[in-house]
Amino acid sequence: MEVNHVVKPNLQIRAFYLFFIILNIQTGLGILGAPRHIFQEAKQDAWISVLIGGVIMHVVVVVMVIILKNYESADILGIQVDVFGTWIGKALGTVYILYIFGVLLSSLINYIQIVQVFIYPQMPPWLLGALLILLIVYTVLGGFRVAVGVTFVFFFLSFWLFFFLYEPARLMDLNHFKPMLEATPKELLFGSYQAGYSYVGLEILFFIYPFIENKKKISMPVHAGVASTTILLLVVTVISVGFFTSITLEHLIWPALSMYKIIEYPIIERFDLIVVTQWAMVIFPNFILFAWLITYSMKRLYGISQRKVLYTIATLLLIGIIYIKKQTIISQFIATISNIGFIIAIVYPVILLPLVLIKRKLVKMKEKSK
Amino acid sequence: MRKQPIRIKHGKNSDFPLSIEVLKQKVKEQLQNIPDILFQQYQIQEKDILIFYIDYQINKKQLDDSLLDTILNRDIQWSTDKILNEVPIGNGTKQTKIDKMVTELIAGAVGVYVVGEPDAITYNIAKQEKRNLQKAETESLVLGPQVSFTESLATNLNVIRWRLNTHDLVTEKFIIGERGQSEVRMVYLKTLANDTDVQTMRQRLQNLVVDELEDSSILSQYIEDNSTSIFPQFYLTELPDRLCYAIGKGRIGVLVDKSPTSIIAPSTFFSFFESTEDIYMRWNVGSFLRILRFVAMFISVVVTPTYVACVTFHYEVLPTPLLASLGQSRAQVPFPPIIEALLLELLIELLRESGARLPTKVGQTIGIVGGIVLGQAAVEAGLTSNVLIIVVASSALASFTAPSYIMGSAIRVIRFPLIIIAGLIGLIGVTLGICFFFIHLIRMTSLGRPYLLPAYPFNWKDMDNSFFRLPFTLSNTRSTSFQPKDMRRYPKQKAQTKKDIDE
C-alpha cells in the first residue's frame, strides 16, 4: 500500500469546505444531549468545561496538522503503515473502520430514537432506518464531491434552526450561573470529557487530507470549524443551564430539543417537531461522510470496490437498527462509542505525533548516510 | 449525408449522355413516379434542351426570370458550359449521376440537360414555406424584445446575426438523422466560449446516431447528461434575446432546423428561474422578482405535502384557533387528507392540461367553469375543505411563475410523490423527500458542469447573477461558473466614476 495517496484533480475540493465538514460532523447529535452530561459533572460552571474542551480540540488540530504536513499527501491509513509497518498499520486502520462504523450506527440509532420519542412512538425503527439508508446509499454512490456538496448545502438549509434559540435565551435566569467557579478542576475536566461525544468526528481530517486542493491553507478553516463548534456548544450549554433548573436539566436526555418546545407562533404551536424533522438535514451529512469514509478506507486498505462495501454496510446498518432496540443498550452503546471516540480523536493523535517525528528523522538520517 | 446506393452502368462513371425519353423515365423511376415532376422541352438551334423540376419545391419567379428568360431569348447553340456561363444564378453545379441529381431536385433544384452533353446542370432555387416572425407565446414578456424564433433555421440564424453582428460568431453545422436529415447549428462566440464546453457539445452532436430529429426539445433529451432525471438540464428558449444574452456570456446555443426553440448549454438549476426581464428591470426590482420565484418554487413544492402531513399526523403543530377552523371545514369531508389533496391536485392538473389543449376561446371558459364552479361545488358537496382549496390553488399558481415551462411542469410533478410520502409517514417523510431532491440536484451535471452552480461548488462572485441582481456598476463580470475566456464585461472603475458636482 502506498503511503501517499494522490487524488485526481477533479475529485479534489477547496480547503474552505473543511470548515463546513468539521462543523457539520461535530455538531450532529452530540450537541442535543451534551448540556446535560456536562452539567452533571461541572454544574453551573459547565460553560468553563466547554471552553476547556474547545482549547483541547484546538491543540489536537495543531497536532494533526503537524502530523499531516510531514507527508506530501498521506492519510492516516498510509501514515500508520509508514510508522508501524504493514501488518500493525493495517490492523490499526481496521480498528478505525470499525470505530467509524460504530459511530455511524450509533448516530443512526440515536436519531431514529429521537424521532420515535418526539413524533412517532408507534413507528417501527426499520422504516425510517431503511429510508435513511437508501438516501445514504444514493448519496455515497455519487462519490466524495457529492458527499461534500450535501454537507455544504444542508448546512445552509438547516443552520437557521440555531437562531430560534433566541426565545429560550430571552427567558434565561442568570442566577442559575451563581455561584461561579465553584467546580473543582477535576470536575471541570470531567465536564469537558463528557462533551467528548460532540467533538467526535475531527478525525475525518486525517482521512480527507489527500482530497484537499490547496493543502497549505487547511489550518484556518479547520480551526474556524472547531471554534464554531465550541461556540455553538457553548451557546446551547449556557442557554440550557440558564433556562432549566438544575433538577430538570439533570433529567432531560435532549435538553436542546426540549428548549425548542416553548417556541410558539400564530401558525406553529410545536416548534420542536419542526426541529426534530429538520434535524435530519443536520445529521444527514454525518451519515454520508462516515459511510463514505468506510468505503474509502476499505478500498485503500484492502482494495475492495467501494460499491460492494457500501452495499455491505447498508445491510449491516439495517440489521443493527432492527436488533438494537432497548434504551439501556442504546445508551450503553453510545457511551462506549463516546469513550472510544475520546481516545481515537484526542489521545491517539498526541501519541502518534512523536512517533511520526522520530520515524521521519530516521528516514532522513538514512538518506543522509546513503 | 446518407450514402445513396451507387449503381454502376456500362462500367462508366457518368450516366450521361442520354436521350430525352430515357432521362425522363429514369428521373421518374427514381422519384417513385410522383405526378409533381414537370418536364419542359425546348428546341433552340437544333439542340434539344430539357428543363425539369418538382413543381412546389422551387421558386417559380426565379425560374422564369433568370433561367428560362436567358435560355429562350438568346439565339445561341447551347452547351452545358455556355449555360453555366450565361445563366445569372450562382449555384449551378454539373451532375453526372442521375441519383445525385434527383436528390438535388428533392431539395428544390431545377435540372437542365442539353441533349448530347456528358453532364446535366442543377440550379438550387428552392422555395421554403415559413411563417413570419411573431410574438413569443410560451415565454411571454412585458418588457424587452418580443420577437420569437420561427421554424426556419435560415430566419433564426438571420435574427441571431442581427443581434450579434460580430465576426466572432461561430455557427458550426451538423447534419443529424439517418432517415430524415436535419441541419443543426452550434452557435457560440469564438473568443468567449469555454473550449472544453464547445468540444463536449461538438462531440455529443457528432456522436449522435438517430433515425430522425423531430424537434430541438428531443435533441436536448438525446444529448443530456442524466436522462433519468425529472429536471431539464438544458434551457429551451424561443426568445432570440435570451439565447443571445447567454451566448454573449460565453455559453453555447444549439439551433435545429424545423424547430422554433433553441437550446442553451450548459444551464444551471437556478438559471431556469431567471427571466431576461430581470435584467431589463431595474436591479432592485429584478432581484425582488427573482427571489419571488424561488419563494414561489418553495411554496409550490412544500405547502401541500406539509398540510397533508400536519392534518394526518401532527395536529399538535397547529395552534388551537387554526385547528378549530380547520376541523370545522374538514368535518364534512369523508376522505383522509392524502386522498383529499390528491383529488384536488388532480383536478387542478386536469384544468391546466385541458386549458393547454383547447383553443384559446374555449380554454378561458373551461378555466372559469373548472376553477370557480367546480371548486365551490366540491366544497359544498363536502368532498374537500376550504383550506385545502386555498393551499392547492396557491401552490399551483406558484408553480406557474417559473419562466421555463419544462421546469414548472417538473416542479408540479414532484409534488405528487411528496404528498404521498407525507400522507404515509408525515413531516419526516417530507424532509427526507426534500433531502432526496437536493442530493439529486447536487449529483446532476449539465454538459459536464455541476448543475447546482454557483451554490455548490460555491462561487461567491456568481451569486449576483443567479440569486439576485446587483447594479451594473458593481457587477461588471461574466459569471465565472462557466469559465468564459474573458471574464470582464467592461472596466469597473469607469463604471463607478461619478459625474456629479466635482465633475
UniProtKB/TrEMBL annotation, chain A:
It comes from the Bacteria. It is found in: Membrane. Keywords: Germination, Membrane, Transmembrane, Transmembrane helix, Transport. GO terms for biological process: spore germination. It holds the Pfam family Spore_permease. The chain crosses the membrane at residues 15-34, 46-67, 87-112, 124-141, 147-167, 224-245, 274-296, 308-324, 330-358. Its main location: membrane. GO terms for cellular component: membrane. It is a multi-pass membrane protein. Belongs to the amino acid-polyamine-organocation (APC) superfamily. Spore germination protein (SGP) (TC 2.A.3.9) family. NCBIfam families: 2A0309. This is Spore germination protein.
UniProtKB/TrEMBL annotation, chain B:
InterPro entries: Spore_Ger, UPF0353/GerABKA_families. It is a multi-pass membrane protein. It is found in: Cell membrane; Membrane. One of its GO terms (cellular component) is plasma membrane. The chain crosses the membrane at residues 291-315, 385-406, 418-442. Coiled coil: none annotated. This is Spore germination protein. The lineage of its organism: Bacteria, Bacillati, Bacillota, Bacilli, Bacillales.
